[in-house]
Design a protein that fits this description.
single chain; mainly alpha; 11 helices; about 75% helix; about 0% strand
Length: about 240
Amino acid sequence: MQFAPVVRAEWLKIRTLRALLGALVGLFAATTAFSALTGAPDTPDPDFDPLFTALSGFMPGQMAALSFGAMAMATEFHNGALRLSLAAVPQRGRWFVAKVTAIAVPALVVGLSTSLAALLAGRAALGSAADGLTTAEQVRAVTGCGLYLALMALFAAGLAALLRSGVATLSLLVPFVLVVSFVIGDAAPTVTEFLPDQAGQVILQRSHEGALGPWSGLAVTALWTAAALLAGAWSLRRRDA
């Protein structure tokens, strides 16, 4: 079977599962709503970053991105669905690439539109505190935030293919993103810079310190994502359906 029909078939699976569409809607709604609730500090704060604050809704929103990626991949490991998929597309590598593509495209489209909406909502909430933001900074942050959310969805998808479980994947990733990376940051801040979530978030900051810049940090997140997807592809090839 050619690649394009396989991608269409995998997208049809995603489109017809309400939980997956709900995760994408949740990604947009949570990110935009939390950004709209932000506000400038009452007293002058030298560490205040209006760009990061305007897009701060990405923090709860990324949970929805992780859920979308993990569930979209994990559905193949329920009730023999993977056997049916591989019966239609015996080339496991082609099927896996098609599956990843079907996850990546909607995650990126929703991620970019979400980032733009969140920035507009965040800027409105900040008022004059966001007036100093340049067009270049805002374009970089919106683009970077959309890419970051899509990469996190794919990172979760790769781990779900490796672990063959959406619950196990989210049980690992959600505490890691919410708690573990911050604990590691307190103990070893240099290590934290290269974690998949912390590295990618540099692109949302107006100014940054440390070894990674905005795009190099996002590249580190992309490397983590590529490693997770390669591990998932290896598991698919080595293990029985």
